[in-house]
Write a structure and sequence with these properties.
Helix content is 9%, strand content 31%. The strands form 3 sheets. The protein has a 16-stranded parallel beta sheet that branches. The chain has 361 residues and is mostly beta strands. Strand 3, helix 3 and strand 4 form a beta-alpha-beta unit.
Length: 361
Amino acid sequence: MAANRRRTAAHPGQRRALTAGATALLAVVSVQAYGSASGAAAASTLTVAKDGSGQHTTVQAAVNAIPSGNTARVIVSIKPGTYRETVKIPATKQNVTLQGSGSSRKDTVIVYDNASGTRKPDGSGTYGTSGSATVAAEANGFQARNLTISNDFDEAAHQDMSARQAVALRTAADKVFLDSVIVTGDQDTLLLDTASKATLGRVYMTNSYVIGNVDFIFGRASAVIDSCVITLKKRWDGSSAGYIAAPSTAADRKGFLINNSTVNGDVSAASFYLGRPWHAGGDASLDPMATFRDTTLSAAVKSAPWTDMSGFSWKDDRFAEYRNAGPGAGSASSDRPHLSDSQATAQETADWLAGWTPSAS
């Protein structure tokens, strides 16, 4: 994007039957990692530990060990520590879970500092916004729990760089489940995307924290952020100004639903917008959508909480509130649309998930 613009216990999944083809596929990896190749297997577990006490010392090495074409649940259990690396789960490796094994989601941290304008080591150009992600999950069924995913790019030290967007987590998949995680950065922290404009990408995030300042929840996915804390962060120069959501929703899709959550942060009063419409690439056919409902809003939220972006008016798209509370909440007006009770019945979690029930298995 342009610069202006609770705890679920770790456990293996349910046992499931494998086809002969899947059994043969799993047989190419170690029995220690995937169990026997006799025909039935529990959700497999690969252990990552920096000290060498696991099967792998980096998260990406564990992902690389999963065979291409995998569809069975694989849990990458990550022991406490800070893992400074980028991680990519390609579309060919479905149902991968990244799970911290510590007692807290703060114990296991995956962090890197690429930004949109960071030059690639091979000299082939810059990463771009989506390419800057510390963790990129492109496979359906991706899950993350009990860990922190961070992009600690230092904006103050790189004022010579014009493209300073820096993604912590990018998802471009369907049936993504994020549970008890911290996703933290500055601009463009959490990119909830889809594999293509025409592809459905459902995301359910719960019992988690998202931290940032500019458009830090953005993308075209149909995403529910439920029972979470959205923490507003000051800009690199200490100023308080920003935007929470920047949906880029296709006209026939659901956008972002922020439900039963809290917006807080150590920033100035009336300094943040709830969101603005991101028409990616200037695509006028998009119909960005965001609803904040049953959520506590701090005094940091502006009284007119939506704003335009790149020449597109928010009033032409789908932005609304319902039954919010707190000092940042306000009554309905032309600058602050509220859903009616009847409209709200069609904007609940089940409407976004469309028959999918998120599960740890």
